[in-house]
Design goal:
Helix content: 40-55%
Order of helices and strands: EEEHEHEHEHEEEHHHHHHHHEEH
Shape: globular
Number of strands: 11
Largest sheet: 7 strands, mixed
Structural class: alpha/beta
Number of helices: 13
Strand order of the largest sheet: 1-2-9-6-5-3-4
Distance between the termini: 46 Å
Radius of gyration: 20 Å
Amino acid sequence: MRTIRVQLGERSYEIRIGRSDAGDEWFALPKTDKALLVTDQTVDGLYGERAERAWRATGADVRRIALPPGEQTKSMSTLERLCECAAEHGMDRAALVVALGGGVVGDLAGFLAAVYMRGIGFWQMPTTLLAMVDSAVGGKTGVNLPQGKNLAGAFHQPSGVTADVATLASLPEREYVSGLAEVAKYGVIRDAELVTALENGAERLAARDPALLEDIVARCCQIKADIVAGDEREAGERAILNFGHTLGHALEKTSGYGRLSHGEAVALGMAYALRLSVAAAGLLPDAAERATALLARLGLPIRPNAKGARDEWTALRAAMGTDKKSRDGHPRFVLAETLGRARPGCETDESVLRRVYEEWIG
């Protein structure tokens, strides 16, 4: 088992990464009197009873709720329902919200913990690769609004994170590959050696080699822990974690939430941002081609469906203008200067944005 500490003073916590099939059954769970275990119906059928038993073994009075899977569940109406469930369960400020699942469940359950009684404890148990390396770490919580993704939310750090890489064996192929987008992102923005490791380990990753996955998850979590420790609320460097997300979030919105997975949208956003980085941030074309080739080798999309893509620019540009990172309607991008170093908050001339898009889609 690997343990990584997110250093945030009194809000510090540990990320425990390992394999329950190696004997560390859910690792070390904290004691609590009451817990609300939030999951989705797919994950519930696989791990819900097992997780509930583990929490009950600590002495907790547990209520388990399984939500419909998918991005559409990440809404204010679902948040209201969860708040009512917590109240019906008699939860007070000493209670704990537990998120068992992927990013949707983690974002929802974390937002519940942030707002219920003005803030209670929260434990992340991610079961997807994307959640393990990204959304379960760092304290970002939230829901979507019709106007855009994650527009309502709060920073609320978990009390701890338990990442059992054995659960990745049950992921559908598309969802597993989707998580590799966030893994590749860390290499582009912060760790060029990770890019090389992913290139060399692509076949083992495709086979879901558990030892390699444990190494990769730990490496990504350490990068994110270091970034979050230095910039908890995204006032500066933490914004580099949004590489690929400006266009990625717009693609999710304009295509209809759920048609593209988050990782697929981020991969497309990264492919575009790499081209934009060549045009506006000095990234060498060979480096952009190398990173884009890695995305493709990992099984991720690197170009949108050409049919109708040219006509989508107006809608995509409008969606990017409502993104949280935009200023006065102007989208701001994270651009790569070299592999392993990125710069946030980049505004680029409108003509360049469109030209790069049109060249990209061909």
